[in-house]
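Quick note —
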Amino acid sequence: MMRIFMASFPYSGHATPPRFGDFEAQRNWMAITLSVPIRLWYKFDLAYWGLDYPPLTAFHSYVCGLYVRLFEPDAMVSPITSRGIETEALKTAMRTTVLFSDLAIFMPAAYALASALYPSDTRKRLTSFAAMALQPLLVAIDHGHFQYNCVSVGLATAAAAVLVRRRHFGNDVLSAILYVAAIFHKHMALYYAPAFFAIMLGDAVRDANGSAKQSILRVARLGVVVILAAAACLGPFALDVSLLRDVIDRLLPFGRGVYEDYVSNFWCATNPVLRWKTYDATIMSKVCAVATVVACIPAGVLSGCKRGTGSDSRAVVPLTLAGTALSFFLFAFQVHEKGVLYAAMPIAALAPDAPLASIGFGAASVLSCRDLLVRDGVFPPAVLAVVVYACAIMYGCKGVCTRVRRAEAVVISACLAMVGATFTLPLVLGAAPLGPRYPYVYAAIDAALYFTFYACAWLYALRLLIQ
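Predicted structure written out below.
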């Protein structure tokens, strides 16, 4: 119901020609894949919403386009003549494709992860599932703003569920295939790459019982599985070097600078002082890569130390995913504010064990994307989604949680402070001379505040891995 309610509000770029927004981008991709030869998919009219996601997104767009064409054929005839079509039939058909994708991929994956984390406690299992299903940023971005994050996040969530339940090497193979599919649907799933690598590497070493040869063989087999899965996801693009180069050029936006909009990460928060945007983009991409790798190391090492097959180590997988996702969000190159969704999902999965932290992070994930959601006209229902999310977790944890960790109380207190700042700073700065003179000062302060919160959440995830 929350998804259907969100879908009744405007979408990204509604009635804002000439480029409109993400809704038009997704429609354009469907039209491209239906009417343009596959060799031109990643070359066609790049100035107007050219394809810039991996091939599984293109194939998914093709399937969705076949469905949408049944209801609004004019929107799928040609990428040129169909620009800017915004009929009710098109809106309903495209909203339906997101809902179908959500129900078919993300929902089963979320329940699988909840069942893996809490196999013997029905209430905790249902609370975990409800928290993931109602994660407010996913609902707002996919069903309000308009995207298909549910596919990539769902595939990665399914891969995590397999790892949590892991009993033998075959589980690693299945998890690797699912995760590769997640990356090749949306490359933002790379946020999880160090976590999956560290966990699978640790499992391979443990299974070998001290045999270096067996460890190397297991890792090599997984490497072959990853390569074959990647080739399958690339499809015809894997058979032609020039086509593959076109895909890579579209996926790696080095020319855009270290960041575009005001995003709550280290580079944006410190740019007013350190002026990162004045440096060459190539140099900054290397600096960001080093910083991201260094930030991911603690979570990877800790997961290797804590990982096992007992019930006490089940939380290691989602905590490691959250740790590396936050590392990428805080320090990677060209981060988008929606990227925090990849950290929010594993945190939501642990709602029965850390309810306040899950609620606080869910609220912060929406508030830090406030400018985007306000621009799309979906901020009010997104706030309502936060309330529904919080109520679901509190109801599910009623009578289950007997105490609140001190660190968790700090996280929720910080979140409340962020909420207060989010709604009071515009009033203060707008009334002061500073506001009109420096129109972006509020966005810069906002980015710094939420960077501080996410950095604390990152440290909190590492602390839980240590315990």
